[in-house]
Amino acid sequence: MKDRNRRPKNGPAAPARARAERPAAKAQPARPPLAKKEQRPAPEAPARPLMRREGEKPAERVPVILETAGSDQYRLIDSGAGEKLEQYGPYRIVRPEAQALWQRSLPASVWDKADAVFTGDTDEDGMGRWKFPKAALGETWPMQLLGVDFHGRFTAFRHVGVFPEQLAHWRWMKEKVETAGRPVKVLNLFGYTGVASLVAASAGAEVTHVDASKKAIGWARENQALGRMEKLPIRWICEDAMKFIQREERRGSKYDIILTDPPKFGRGPNGEVWHLFDHLPLMLDICREILSPKAIGLVLTAYSIRASFYSIHELTRETMRGAGGTVESGELVIRESGEGRDAGRALSTSLFSRWIST
Q1: Staple 200 to which of 61, 148, 186, 240, CB 3.0 to 4.6 Å?
Q2: Is the omega angle on the peptide bond into residue 63 within 30 degrees of 0, that is, cis?
Q3: CB within 8 A of 4, min separation 6: which ones?
């Protein structure tokens, strides 16, 4: 292949005789400085065609609102005016929240007691910085949910390492694993900091955790060490989720529970590109193929997408044709506790759809 960045050779002047024999070349316009060559993303694995499913669609239950009311380690205290006030372990935190269209319920004196306030870009994945009104805080702090220890962390993307609304899914998964009466294999795709994986493993499951971010995998391992859970059967895999499940399908691997929490847009460790609306149908199709004959459930959560939960509900029902069971879909919400733990408004956080075998 020719090197497009190679410059013309500018050697010494040719002898007069050579000049007479060959007309001088026309002067070339100066080339602009060459931009740094962009690294091309790795070629994507060829997408297999979607399977045409036979049989009846699963029963349906819609709409389903899965509500998290908080715990001793987490509470949504108040929300409004585009922000939310939460309690994470020992700290009160203020972050942007586009869904909080209403006015705040609690007075400014309560909000002013926050230990940390995220400032900057208010987009879901926008970068910013943290302000600490009282005193400078460390980057991490210990927390515990469902008996699992992990680190909260002030990140530049406003997230703190855990999505408490997922407690509704985690409680369901924990109960299913503990009552299965047999070994259960769990696959956690886009597993982030590993809290769900640790919940599943501590309940007795054999877990495969997949995330494309080396930082997230490192954080997940830190969480495992914090809770002295190094001996739990968890495989930590840093890889593009689509590549991983396609390989698992070819290998004939099977799982009893699959959790998938894909972003709207993302990139794999080798430049793979993920677009939820383009790739989700194939992802679910492959997940169906790697569910075990005695599968317990398939859980999908979707954040920050412009769609109704009916979109992912119908996709999940079509994907699970002929499998029996029930598909239930709706929203994950967090209920405000108020300063006195009085029930307040429900804050919508995400859409979900899950197939359950019984």
Answers
A1: 186
A2: yes
A3: none
**324: left (phi > 0), else alpha (psi -120 to 50), else beta?**
left
How close are the terminal C-alpha atoms of the chain, in Å? 58
Cα(7)–Cα(10) distance, integer angstroms: 9
Q: Which domains does the chain have, with CATH numbers?
A: 59-71+140-154+162-356 (3.40.50.150), 74-131 (2.60.40.1180)
Q: For residues 141 and 152, is the Cβ–Cβ distance under 8 A?
A: yes
Cβ atoms of 333 and 346 within 8 Å: the answer is yes
Angle subtended by helix axes 214-226 and 195-202, to nearest 10: 40
Rounded to 5 degrees, what are φ and ψ at 66? -95, 115
Residues 125-164 have pLDDT tens digits of 567 899 999 999 999 999 999 999 999 999 998 999 999 9
| Cα–Cα dist 229/233, whole Å | 9
The whole-number pLDDT of residue 266 equals: 82
β-strand pairing of 91-96 with 116-120? parallel
How many C-beta atoms surround the C-beta of residue 266 within 10 A?
Answer: 18
Quote the pLDDT of residue 30: 46
Interval 189-209: pLDDT, tens: 999 999 999 999 999 999 999
- At 148, the amino acid letter reads V
Rounded to whole angstroms, the Cα distance separating 308 from 100 reads: 18
**Residues counted in the chain:** 358
Region 84-102 average pLDDT: 97
* pLDDT for residue 28 is more than 60: no
**pLDDT score at 265:** 85
Residue 22 vs residues 12, 14, 19, 26: alpha-carbon distances, Å:
16, 10, 5, 12
